[in-house]
Design brief:
By secondary structure, the protein is an alpha/beta fold. Helices cover about 35% and strands about 20% of the residues.
């Protein structure tokens, strides 16, 4: 099975392709399979694609203690050191975008290019009526779907889902609260990408792109599920950005 020891934690990861490394960082309650529309495109373009599953998500077991964005960023740094052994392009979606941003802040030597998809970084950017509000209801249709998926994949078994759920809901209710002024030292070229009906306001994403010294913003028609809704457009944009094509291209 594709497990790797990361700082003493058994971490499930999927690796495919050859070339410069790209690490895909999934969202909450998700795993490697959420990137099914992007992985083949990146592999076909000549990248080695790593898709790790963070603690408590999909095939990676939970461990005692809280789950926070800071903890997951440290786990990801350990993964990059252990599995990649050097810098990589990071593409984070939803919670994975917060994790990627914190990795770039803490270990700039590990990040070549950074893509942040569909996420707010403090509460000022959160849009009302989004998916995160549905997650507050443990009996919602969304949560029933996520609970069933967790039970089918997690080595902890379906009975552990309420424990993970409580940890993540606490995180959603208290984080992230990142002050943009602390991010001016991130020098990696960064693409901030979102749907026009996403979980984050366009104004918030624009402010982030303006704060980052090498930040750019792209807004496409779509929702928080943008990478699955319009994969052809998203993949073309990702590949153009990773290649470093000029804006006119």
């Amino acid at each position: 099975m594709p497990y790797i020891d990361v700082a003493g934690m058994q971490t499930w990861h999927e690796v495919s392709g050859q070339g410069d490394p790209v690490v895909l960082l999934h969202g909450a309650f998700a795993g490697a399979s959420s990137w099914f529309a992007q992985t083949p495109a990146l592999v076909g373009a000549g990248y080695r694609v790593h898709v790790p599953e963070r603690r408590g998500h999909a095939h990676t077991p939970d461990i005692p203690g809280p789950i926070t964005y800071s903890v997951m960023a440290d786990d990801t740094i350990s993964y990059l050191d252990a599995a990649v052994g050097g810098p990589a392009h990071l593409i984070g979606w939803s919670d994975g975008a917060v994790v990627g941003l914190l990795v770039a802040l803490r270990r700039p030597d590990l990040v070549n290019r950074l893509v942040l998809i569909g996420q707010y970084y403090n509460s000022s950017g959160k849009t009302p009526g989004g998916i995160t509000e549905a997650l507050d209801d443990a009996d919602s249709e969304v949560m029933r779907f996520l609970r069933d998926a967790y039970a089918a994949e997690s080595p902890d078994g379906g009975d552990h889902f309420p424990v993970l759920y409580a940890k993540l809901i606490h995180m959603f209710n208290t984080e992230p609260e990142i002050d943009f002024s602390t991010l001016t030292g991130i020098l990696a070229p960064t693409l901030v990408l979102q749907g026009d009906r996403d979980e984050v306001s366009v104004e918030h994403s624009q402010a982030l792109a303006d704060t980052l010294p090498r930040g750019r913003l792209a807004v496409l028609p779509g929702t928080h599920m943008l990478p699955l809704e319009t994969p052809d457009i998203v993949n073309a944009l990702l590949l153009a950005f990773l290649r470093g094509d000029p804006a006119g291209a």
